[in-house]
Amino acid sequence: MPWCVKKCPYCDFNSHALTGDIPEQAYLQAMLEDLEQDLPLIQGRPIQTVFIGGGTPSLMSPDFYHRLFEGLKTHLSLEDDAEITLEANPGTMEQGRFDGFRAAGINRLSLGIQSFQPHQLEALGRIHDDKAAHRAIEAARKAGFDNFNLDLMHGLPNQTPEDAAADLQAAIAWAPPHLSWYQLTLEPNTEFYSRPPNLPDDDRLWDIYCQGADLLRSHGYEDYEVSAWSQPGAASRHNLNYWTFGDYLALGAGAHGKVTLADGQIRRFWKTRQPEAYLNRIGSRTAGHQLVATEDLPLEFMMNALRLSGGVSESLFTERTGLPLSVVEIELESLRKDRLLEPDRLQATELGQRYLNTLLERFL
């Protein structure tokens, strides 16, 4: 869902500031036409998870999602226990809207809090304040969302370890099953990249991370992925599919997908980015695609799987790439010799996690 009320200065996602009403009916029709074009890629497989991201998906009405899922179910087989996540911005929530999302079939929310401190929210260009953040979480709980994620950033302008811990404490007080706690980075083609704010230096960033990680662990959270923390059993199934090199469809302006074709080749594809162009496209809304070259598969797999703190089994490499493990035997042996990789499992050691980029360079 590519629309936002305004573009945040740190955001490099495919989001576009609203200049009028969202053309919900036209966009719904475009998405369903888009899906019909991609049905041959599905090969009859059931859908296990759906993630509705943006942009700001909570700008769309509950009725839009009700009609969207009616349309999806005419073409797809959704598993009865499918995890269906909607990203929501606290600044776009109206009274009762969460109830409507729940009734439409959405069973997990991801709330873009970023910080509970008013001055940081202002610096980040967010349209909500700390009170709206707390109201949104309360509304989600009242609507019956017992499975939800809170998005928080650290390494914010002039932030101290104490500031970061205060944000985490405010989040933990709501007992979220899942937390995304990630560092603010300066991405090209953003306002912050052109005019960088005063961000903490590397030493302070490390202090923030260490103190925050200790706090989260003391409250039962596990860092199952580089920036994802959850209570036991509450890891995001959709995210786990990404990190285990699973397949996923792409639907909507700027969406990206990855599918394993019937002949075993892996295809990445992406949709038209601009909302107007996506709406008015005649024929396929796929803007481009490419087959992942055989020689690139080991790095692609490892870049995903080794983000998981628990790693993956060695057998998954062959299952997801179609290649024998022997093609990376030399690299694995070298990494284990350097104590960067655990024995008999594709899992970075604690040292390997700290130097993950260096580890991954071995597969270039």
Q: How much strand?
A: 15-25%
Q: Walk across the major sheet and give the strand order.
A: 3-4-5-6-7-9-8
Named CATH architecture of the largest domain: Alpha-Beta Barrel
Average of the residue pLDDT scores? 96
Count of domains: 2
What's the CATH class of the largest domain, please?
Alpha Beta
Find the CATH topology of the largest domain. Answer: TIM Barrel
| Helical content band | 25-40%
CATH H-level homologous superfamily name of the largest domain: Aldolase class I
* Succession of helices and strands: EEHEHEHEHHEHEHHEEHEEHEHHHHH
Mind telling me the C-alpha Rg?
Answer: 21 Å
Sheet/helix structural class:
alpha/beta
Biggest sheet layout: 7 strands, mixed
Shape summary:
globular
Q: What is the CA–CA distance across the termini?
A: 34 Å
The number of helical segments is: 15
Which regions have little confidence, pLDDT < 50, spanning 5+ residues? none
